[in-house]
Amino acid sequence: MDPLDVDREFYDLIRARYCSRPYEAKPGAWVRCGIHLKAQCESCAELYRGDWAAIACSGLFDEDGAVVEGYRYAFLTLTAPSFGKVDETGAAIDPTTYDYLGQVAWNCASSALWRSTLHRLHRQFSGLAYFAVIEAQRRGVRHYHVVLRIPEREAPLFPEAIEQIAGAATTQYAGAVIEWGTQLDCRYISSATDAARGEMAQTIWYISKALGYALKSVDENDLMAKPGAAIPPHIEHLRALTSAARNDLWCARCPVNGPRNCPAPIHGNFGSSAQVVLYARGSKNRPSWSFGGLTRTKQREDPTAWMRAEAAAGRREQRDGMSEQEREAAKWIRANWHLRHDPSPAEEPCASRAP
C-alpha cells in the first residue's frame, strides 16, 4: 500500500477525533478552537453538531426517552423562490439571465422573512415552540428545516394551517417584496405515543444531518482563479454570487462609498448571516423549545463542573483544557495538512461557505 494512503487514512481518523487548532488560553491551559466549520476543524464541528442534536431531542423527548404527550409535531420546510434555472450541480444554466443579486438579496432578507413568519405563527398558536436548521442548497440559497411543537388544544387545523400562515408571510428589501418559494411544505410527524418515537428520532436524525451539511464550507482556494485550469460551472456560479454579495449588496453597515469594503459577514457568505441554528428560547409568555432547559451554555458548563469535582475528589489531575495526547495529535494534523482531500463541490448536497 502506498505510504501516502496510509498516512491519509490515519490523518482522517485522527482529524475526526482531536481538535486540529488548539490554542493556549493561558500558560499551561490549552483549549479547543471551537470552530464550527468541518473544513477547519472536523472534531470541534462534530461536537458542535452533537450538542445541537441533543438540544433538538430535548424538545421532543423526556428524560426517559419517551415522546412528551399533550403536543402535536410537524416538520416545516421553507425554501426560496427561483432566480433562474440551474443544473444538477446547482450552477446556472444561463448565467447571463440568472438573478445573482436577487438571490444574495433574498439570502440577506431571509432572516427578516423568518421573523415575520414566526410572528404570524405565534399569533395563531401562542404555545408554539420550534427548532430550526438553516442550510444552503447547491445553488447557494438558504432554506429552512423547522420542527414545530404545538399544544394539542391549539392545533385543530394543524398542520394544514401552517402552510397557509407561512405562505402569506412577507418582508421587504430595497423596496422589493421578499417571500418564500412555492415549494413550501409542512407535514405532520406523529402523535405523542410510544409508537411515534421512531419517527421522531428519524426527524432528529434528518435535522442533525442537515446541520452537518450547513457546517461544511467551500474552500476559499476553490473560488480563486487558477492559471490554465478549467473552471467548473458550479464554481463559476459561486464566484458570481460572491461578486454580487461583495460589490452590489447593500446592508445597514455599508459605508457611503458602497459595500466593497464593508466588514459585515453577509458580504462574504452569499448574503447570508452566519447563524445556522434557531430555536425557541422562551419568555414570560412563550415556552422554550427544550423541556429541560438545555442550552449551549449549560452544555459547556456541565463538563467543566464534572472535571472540577473529579479533581477535587482526587480522581484525576486538574486540567483546564486539552490533554497532552490531544495537543500532540493537533501538531501531527498541522504538519500533515497537505494530505487533506476535500470533496468536490459537485459531490456536496449544499454549498455553504465560511462567513
Could you give a short description of this structure?
The protein is of the alpha+beta class. The protein has eight helices and nine strands. The chain has helices at 3-17, 42-57, 100-124, 160-167, 197-214, 233-247, 296-312, 324-335, and strands spanning 23-26, 29-31, 71-78, 129-136, 142-151, 170-173, 176-179, 185-191, 277-279.
How does this structure look, described?
- α2 runs antiparallel to α5.
- The chain has helices at 3-17, 42-57, 100-124, 160-167, 197-214, 233-247, 296-312, 324-335; strands spanning 23-26, 29-31, 71-78, 129-136, 142-151, 170-173, 176-179, 185-191, 277-279.
- The strands form three sheets. A five-stranded antiparallel beta sheet has the order 8-3-5-4-9, sandwiched between helices. A two-stranded antiparallel ribbon has the order 1-2.
- The longest helix is centred in the first third of the chain and has 25 residues, at 100-124.
- The protein has 355 residues and is of the alpha+beta class.
Outline the secondary-structure elements:
Blueprint: H1 3-17, E1 23-26, E2 29-31, H2 42-57, E3 71-78, H3 100-124, E4 129-136, E5 142-151, H4 160-167, E6 170-173, E7 176-179, E8 185-191, H5 197-214, H6 233-247, E9 277-279, H7 296-312, H8 324-335
